[in-house]
Amino acid sequence: MTQVIAAGRGYDVRSPLSTAPAIPTGALSAGPQPMLSALGGLLLRPWELSDAPVFFAAYQDPEIRHWHTRQPASEDQVREWFEQYRQAWAQETGASWAVTRGGGEVLGRIAMGGVNLDDGVAGCAYWVLPAARGAGVASRALTALSVWALGEAGFHRLHLDHSTRNHASCRVAVKCGFLLEGTKRSDAVHSDGRHDMHLHARIRGDD
Ligand SMILES: CC(C)(COP(=O)(O)OP(=O)(O)OC[C@H]1O[C@@H](n2cnc3c(N)ncnc32)[C@H](O)[C@@H]1OP(=O)(O)O)[C@@H](O)C(=O)NCCC(=O)NCCS
Q1: What CATH number labels 21-203?
Q2: Is the CB of 69 under 6 A from ligand 1?
Q3: 194 C-alpha to ligand 1 centroid (Å)
Q4: Is-contact 117 5, C-beta < 8 A?
Q5: Is the CB of 133 under 6 A from ligand 1?
Q6: d(Cα 10, Cα 159) in Å, to the nearest integer?
Q7: Residue with the nearest Cα to atom 26 of ligand 1?
Q8: pLDDT in tens, 55-108
């Protein structure tokens, strides 16, 4: 059977795979994007249009602006992003969740991107609103995402990267079992220039 493989890997998109895909095409999008429960009453849920103001406000925070260089220009653009998130789930290329208190108040964002179903690999990213920081929101959300992705969803490896100067993000990664694999020198541009980036990953079966 011909499997569609990622064009980004440099192959023809209709080339046959010589190995079984880690996650068959359609396995994720067969159902709706799941809601994921995390410790302490957190619920990760898909974004709703009514979240646009708080999402836009998050990107006025200097820390989020510094570490996340792709920023929405308006609430209208946030709503366009929410539609892109919906399409990403349908196309199995990524997923973005609002990290909420029981489904209501938004505390942060966590996302999967760069999904490669053939290899069962995806990247993770997160931010937490300033008022909600320091209470374990990011680490509980990343743990919940990891448990689902490396379990029920069938991924084998999740990775994330952050600037070597972002100590909070490094601590979240390590606390959630994402081992430090190395430093990618001069790999990303932030407002103050190029940064070295830590690469972390958690693999199915890691503690
Ligand atoms: C990084 C960020 C997501 C952490 O969110 P959070 O909910 O406050 O993180 P947690 O409360 O889960 O903290 C997890 C660990 O990080 C540590 N930590 C939090 N902020 C820290 C800081 N500024 N410096 C060092 N460690 C820090 C906590 O102490 C905790 O470790 P501990 O349990 O051993 O004490 C949040 O600070 C943020 O949104 N920053 C701006 C955007 C950003 O950096 N995104 C990541 C880009 S890669």
Answers
A1: 3.40.630.30
A2: no
A3: 22
A4: no
A5: yes
A6: 21
A7: 168
A8: 999 999 999 999 999 999 999 999 999 999 999 999 999 999 999 999 999 999
